[in-house]
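Propose amino acids for all 146 sites.
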């Protein structure tokens, strides 16, 4: 059973508040199925062998938009089921994200805006060595005060 986070409100957001860490492993099958569902049947997303043979890559890759979606889920899980919504997320891909390795998702609140009732966050995905593979920023917006 999945436990839903309590609804986050603007009034409960604290600068410096952490999201995660959450450990995940993206399987090769998940990455392949995601790529196929998105119409991205290129060798880099199909198998280690195809990625090496056809594209000269060290191994199969996880689609970038899949990792973006995983970081977006980190934020929306933190928000819970209240009035907060993910308004914007942007990422920079610093290194390959290979399926089959343990990844850790992190984030923290960097800024709040009382007038806009919003909060800015830094988010990132790192490998087992602590190398930040994907980094980004997000903005969450909250509805009017109740």
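Proposal:
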């Amino acid at each position: 059973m999945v436990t839903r986070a309590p609804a986050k409100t603007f009034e409960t957001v604290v600068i410096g508040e952490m999201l995660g860490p959450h450990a995940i492993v993206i399987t090769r099958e998940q990455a392949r199925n995601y790529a196929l569902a998105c119409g991205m049947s290129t060798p880099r997303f199909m198998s280690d062998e195809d990625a090496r043979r056809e594209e000269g890559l060290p191994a199969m890759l996880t689609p970038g938009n899949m990792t973006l979606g995983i970081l977006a889920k980190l934020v929306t899980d933190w928000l819970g089921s209240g009035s907060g919504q993910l308004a914007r997320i942007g990422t920079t891909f610093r290194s390959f994200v290979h399926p089959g390795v343990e990844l850790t998702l992190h984030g923290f609140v960097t800024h709040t805006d009382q007038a806009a009732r919003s909060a800015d966050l830094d988010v990132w995905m790192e490998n087992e060595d602590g190398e930040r593979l994907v980094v980004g920023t997000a903005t969450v917006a909250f509805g009017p005060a109740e």
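The radius of gyration is 17 Å. The chain has two domains: 1-26+62-146, 28-61.
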